[in-house]
Amino acid sequence: MNPTVGAVVVTYRPDLVLTVPLLRALADQCAHVVVVDNGSPQDAREGLAAVCAEVGAELLPLGHNAGIARAQNLGTDRARALGADLVLFSDQDSLPAPDMVSRLLDGWARAASRGVRVGAVGPVSSDTRSTTEQMVYVARRWGPRRARPEEAHDGLVEAAFLIASGCLIDVAALDEVGGMNEAWFIDHVDLEWGLRARRAGLRLYAVPDARLDHELGDRLTKLPGRAQEVHVHSPVRTYYLARNTVLLIRSGLMTPAWRLGYAVWLAKYVAFNALLAAPRRRRIALMARGLRDGVTGRTGPLA
């Protein structure tokens, strides 16, 4: 019997020019589409409701920004109530290839045939603003790093974690591992869940022939001497990334080498945003608050 796939899309002030083709693509590929809106203004919500009605998606308006993790968990509960065996997460600024879901299911079957416990599979995500972005991360000594082409075996790459958008998760894995960590609100939520899943003995795989266009961050920029572009987030997101990286380091989910690797990454991230990304003062203040809250263990939304 083929598994039933339910898509869960989280929106926040969506650009309907991007969201309409996303919802149409998911409706063509999934048995159910649940859209969880995180407190968009009324006009945006009304436009989103019209699109959902057109494509046959179900809209769950939250009325406030509850965070991506809470929205994903609520959407998952609804997708399961509709009969989903597998849940496909999507951000509002993604666009799956017309055959992405079928290729993910094929990849899942290949992985399961190896006799391993598969927790989730995901596509190769490419940033539409870049010619070099291939967002598949494998485990290295100092933490997750971009995969190399030769690391694909039988059309699969075993991943350290999977980016949430495009990730296809077994509801049984969610029962075993738990849902997304709502206390973290946004940022590193997918990474934290992936670490919990792998600690439980589940395997995560990227499927290279499953494709997804996805924009990560507000913009990309190039730095001298660095081939890979840098993702630049809004000032508020620097708070969450700083805080949740500290929480991640303190979580007990990583090896000492990974903790050190993330500490180095965090130092570079803070330096870049403090020195090269405007508005510098606001970013510095928010990152300082995030670092403090990470150390003290404060979670939830930025007050």
Automatic annotation (TrEMBL):
Pfam name, any one: Glycos_transf_2
Gene3D superfamilies given in the database record: Spore Coat Polysaccharide Biosynthesis Protein SpsA, Chain A
Keyword vocabulary terms for this entry: Glycosyltransferase, Membrane, Transferase, Transmembrane, Transmembrane helix
Family matches, as CDD domains: GT2_RfbF_like (cd02526)
Record's keyword annotation contains Transmembrane helix: yes
GO molecular-function terms, A-Z: glycosyltransferase activity
Matching SUPFAM superfamilies: Nucleotide-diphospho-sugar transferases
Membrane spanning residue stretches: 260-279
Pathway where this protein functions: Cell wall biogenesis; cell wall polysaccharide biosynthesis
Record-annotated Glycosyltransferase 2-like domain positions: 22-177
UniProt keyword Ubl conjugation, yes or no: no
Cited PANTHER family: GALACTOFURANOSYLTRANSFERASE GLFT2, RHAMNOSYLTRANSFERASE WBBL
Family recorded in the similarity comment: Belongs to the glycosyltransferase 2 family.
Protein name stated in the entry: Glycosyltransferase family 2 protein
